[in-house]
Design a protein that fits this description.
Pfam families: PP2C (PF00481). InterPro entries: PP2C, PPM-type-like_dom_sf, PPM-type_phosphatase-like_dom. One of its GO terms (molecular function) is [pyruvate dehydrogenase (acetyl-transferring)]-phosphatase activity. This protein has about 300 residues and is an alpha+beta fold. Among the domains are: about 80 residues, no CATH class; about 90 residues, no CATH class. About 25% of the residues lie in helices and about 20% in strands. It has six helices and 17 strands. It has a four-stranded antiparallel β-sheet. The longest helix has 26 residues. It is globular and about 70 Å long. The chain starts with a helix and ends in an 8-residue tail after the last strand.
Length: about 300
């Protein structure tokens, strides 16, 4: 639904801008479009009993600038003359810990009697009541000590590390569209209040640099980035594109395919393996390549 309709919301929002005098107007239009998409999903869910949600990574080209909007754990990078320019960041329970904790602190009813907004290095045990332990709250980037109280025995709002980090032990992303009916397992507590539909928008001014046909914007879902680094992607960009003539547009399709196949791996030892023998990605792997220079760019 998002892939079919989100761009229409963005287009409608941009049409309302009588005069684009500052990039903040475009950023605001994109942000508003994400919210309208999320609201439409909520309305149609009630009518059609459609469940689920998704991350969204969007690129808008307007008046010489590229706007990259990300809500979720997908990632976009620009590879320009071998240089890597990050154009998004992943939104996970780890990266948004303080935002989630602040919401839990301000609205404790969202946590019920099951969760605490505080974070501890490990799960606190009943036998530790009255003892001192490390903790941090929504205001803290470092750690401090506190005496363990009864409420601290509740399950932490944010738990786990890396790909295993979860919000309310349920979901591993903190921004996206949909999921209006998602509940904590074996509970009536809704997850949606902690999931923001608003994207982070980054802007890249194309007029500030002379781009060549090998300069590209790479968009990928977490299935790519779980097993592939930015540097490895840049190396693949160089290897694949250098094998084609600069005016051959099929080179960009070949690059996307190479990145997908590289992250998937090959069947070996009862599983899909990468060249380093690590497991290939088991998640969705979707890749878009957008050329930034050369004939046909921005069309």
């Amino acid at each position: 639904m998002a892939s079919r309709l989100l761009h229409r919301h963005i287009r409608e929002q941009l049409k309302d801008l009588k005069e684009v005098t500052h990039e903040s107007l475009v950023v605001g239009a994109i942000e508003n479009a994400f919210q309208l998409m999320d609201e439409q999903m909520a309305r149609e869910r009630r009518g059609h009993q459609v469940e689920g949600g998704c991350c969204a990574l969007v690129v808008v080209y307007l008046l010489g600038k590229v706007y990259v909007a990300n809500a979720g754990d997908s990632r976009a990078i620009i590879v320009r003359n071998g240089e890597i320019i990050p154009m998004s960041r992943e939104f996970t329970p780890e990266t948004e810990r303080q935002r989630l904790q602040l919401l839990g602190f301000l609205k404790p009813e969202l946590l019920g009697s099951e969760f605490t907004h505080l974070e501890f290095p490990r799960r606190v045990l009943p036998k530790e009541l009255g003892q001192r332990t490390l903790y941090r709250d929504q205001n803290m980037t470092g750690w401090a000590y506190k005496k363990i109280e009864l409420e601290d025995l509740r399950f932490p709002l944010v738990c786990g590390e890396g790909k295993k980090a979860r919000v309310m032990a349920t979901i591993g992303v903190t921004r996206g569209l949909g999921d209006h009916n998602l509940k904590v397992c074996n509970s009536t507590l809704p997850i949606k209040p902690f999931l923001s539909c608003f994207p982070e928008v980054r802007v890249y001014d194309l007029t500030q640099y002379e781009h060549c046909p090998d300069d590209v914007l790479v968009l990928g879902t977490d299935g790519l980035w779980d097993v592939t680094t930015d540097c490895e992607v840049a190396a693949t960009v160089d290897r694949v594109l250098s094998a084609y003539e600069p005016n051959d547009h099929s080179r960009y399709t070949a690059l996307a395919q190479a990145l997908v196949l590289g992250a998937r791996g090959t069947p070996r030892d009862r599983g899909w393996r990468l060249p380093n023998n690590k497991l290939g990605s088991g998640d969705d792997i979707s890749v878009f390549i957008i050329p930034l220079g050369g004939p046909g760019s921005y069309s």
